[in-house]
Amino acid sequence: MTFKKFLGQLHLILGLMTGLVVFIVSITGCIYAFEHEIQEISQPYRWVKEKGTQMLPPSKIKEIALEATDGMLVRRIYYEHPETSAIALHYADDAPYYYLTFIDQYTGEVLKVKNLEKDFFTIILYLHISLLLPYGKEIIGVSTLLFLVLLISGLYLWFPRNKNKKAVRQKFKIKWKASWRRQNYDLHSVLGFYTCWILIFSAITGLVWSFEWFEKSYYYLLSGGEHLKKSELQSKVEEGASINTPMVDRVWQKVLADDPEILGITIYLPISPEEVITTYSSPDYGTYGRLDWRYFDQFTMEEYPALDFRGRHEDATVAQKIMKLNYDIHTGGMLGLAGKFLMFFASLISASLPVTGFLLWRGRSKKKRQKSSHRQEKIYS
């Protein structure tokens, strides 16, 4: 068996093994591509009119959110833009709720309390990352890893044996006037070739979230041999101390004062005396590549340096900036709306590859059975 035949068999086996998962992940990624834009249009409670007055501080937003939800634990507060509502995120490790409270950040009016368990895009997201199954994240991770092998092997198989100009040109276009089997082959081969360059990056950035060993290996390669460290920061707690809520407001004010270009800021509220106050802010709306992550002691307001890539953007190395861009690369948001369209069509084609691949395998299997039966007829005739 030649290497190309072996690779063809491997490509077939891995395709049959992962086809259904790749289809689900791709089609949900396709639907989720414009989640941000669709929600902005369809959910008017996300928008407020900038009043030219001071925004309400996190402690006040938390107080309003607690009252609106009968005391549901508030874990984060988002100020995404001067013209959007502040959002309180409610969830608990041992409770079945996962809610958002939308609040006018200038007047304090509660605009919407939303149960994300019933939210369309939340369901699509969890289908994308876990198939809504126990151990679904692991299944997605393994399938994505095999899909990466499929893309690389498919790229190798695409290269024509015949190097004359006509044969090479045919590899770049679909022969629409040919039989449906030929069209199916071209849809799999030609579209697969065009999109594999995008899907390889999509698979790699997806694997960064799937496996810690992959994230560490990826960073090691990007940084030229530097090991990825995890930030495990704690506040300096004195005996008998309780959560220092007013300090959250002071941290919020400091972060805003330090950088006048900030459009949005998110506050992670500490729920124990040991936790630090974590914030991330950005000069951009809707993308996450230039986030500034900062960490403060909730009692002394001492700022701690980040140990991993989640730190100040201006201090980040090239490898750390690439890691910060991981989400924007994965979604295409790095290139703006054009990048999202690109990722939308790439995901759509990715969803078609298991289908055209299956039809290709089924057609060839049927053809082999027909040839085998013809041979047997000749022997016994």
UniProtKB/TrEMBL annotation:
Keywords: Membrane, Transmembrane, Transmembrane helix. The chain crosses the membrane at residues 12-34, 139-159, 191-211, 341-361. It holds the Pfam family PepSY_TM. PANTHER family: BLL7967 PROTEIN, IRON-REGULATED INNER MEMBRANE PROTEIN-RELATED. This is Sulfite reductase.
